[in-house]
Amino acid sequence: MPFNIACGRCRNCKEGKTGICLNVNPDRPGSAYGYVDMGGWVGGQPEYVMVPYADFNLLVFPDRDQAMEKVRDLTMLSDIFPTGFHGAVTAGVKPGSTVYVAGAGPVGLAAAAGAQLLGAAVVIVGDLQEDRLAQARSFGCETVDVSKGDPKDQIEQLLGVPEVDAGIDAVGFEARGHGDGSSSEAPATVLNSLMEITAAGGALGIPGLYVTGDPGGIDEAAKIGALSLSLGTGWAKSLSFTTGQCPVMRYNLGLMKAILHDRVQIAKAVNATVISLDDAPRGYQEFDKGAARKYVIDPHGTLAA
Asked: Which Gene3D superfamilies match (predicted)?
């Protein structure tokens, strides 16, 4: 089941824009389980989940035994794999592309794996934490430690030029500064950096989350989602931008086939780690500290059985 809920009947759903369904949220287009401003649907991490419009939303695996062998990988189809892949697709990644992914959390790692699946020549992943960067290197990515300075200079060392064909923001509004400013929140840092290092005529895929309300924002503008973007840079370079919730159903069938036919090992790429529902609070605490893994909650002990 996708993390976003779609009715399958409205204009947007029929056009494949299932991340912005018009019928499942009274406040605005788009809905999801257990998230603020997403329609009031309860969370998706209990023992059982009611799936609205299940006839439309559920993806059926063709063979149960085959699915159970790859269930860690297939679990990623609910959210991070399509979301990361969406970032790569909307950034225009194609065979031979050079790609920079900002953020080595699960979505960033999924974006990197997605870029490889699309045929990228080089995928560079930037982050502040060495263990996350090591996870990116474990499946063939180059890495940039943004705590050591501007990614542009490190990209030039890797590629011979200070820019890439495609940029992906897998960080969002909780971004931090580069170099000496990496300890303080700077929500526009990643977007401005991507505009600088993406080649003219290129594109930015932005699966990273940006919000219209952030009570913990660093200033009054940030608290309402208004960021100091260098839009002139984007305009001058004719860059394209794609933001918003991933329309999971646009990708999950194809990605399922890629998993089942061994074209991608997404669970390995994101270091999928299975925990019980009772361990979920600990998992959240560790993830909040930057653990280099994607936690998968197994409330019924299915894998152990």
From this structure: Medium-chain alcohol dehydrogenases, catalytic domain, NAD(P)-binding Rossmann-like Domain
Reported pTM: 0.95
Three-state DSSP at 124 gives strand
Q: Establish if 283 belongs to a structural domain.
A: yes
Please give the residue range of the domain that contains residue 304.
271-305
- Residue 181: per-residue pLDDT: 57
Does residue 266 lie in a domain region? Answer: no
Contact 207, 111 (CB under 8 A): yes
Q: Tell me how many degrees the CA angle 283-284-288 measures, rounded to the nearest 5.
A: 120
Q: Which two tokens stand for residue 90?
A: 């909307």
Six-digit token string for 201: 């005529």
Do 15 and 128 reside in the same domain of the chain?
no
Termini Cα distance of the chain: 22
Report residue 170 as tokens.
């897998």
> How many other C-beta atoms are found inside a 10 Å radius of the C-beta of residue 303?
11
29 and 161 assigned to the same domain: no
Q: How far apart are CA 64 and CA 282, in angstroms?
A: 31
In a domain, 259, yes or no: no
- Identify whether 186 is part of a domain: yes
Answer positive or negative: Cα dihedral of 88, 94, 95, 99: negative
**Given a cut of 70, is residue 280 above it in pLDDT?**
yes
Of 97, 182, 120, 109, give the one whose Cα is nearest residue 147.
182
What pLDDT does 182 receive? 63
Q: Please choose, from the candidates 14, 18, 58, 81, the residue with its C-alpha nearest in 3D space to the C-alpha of residue 244.
A: 18
Sign of CA dihedral 22, 27, 28, 30: negative
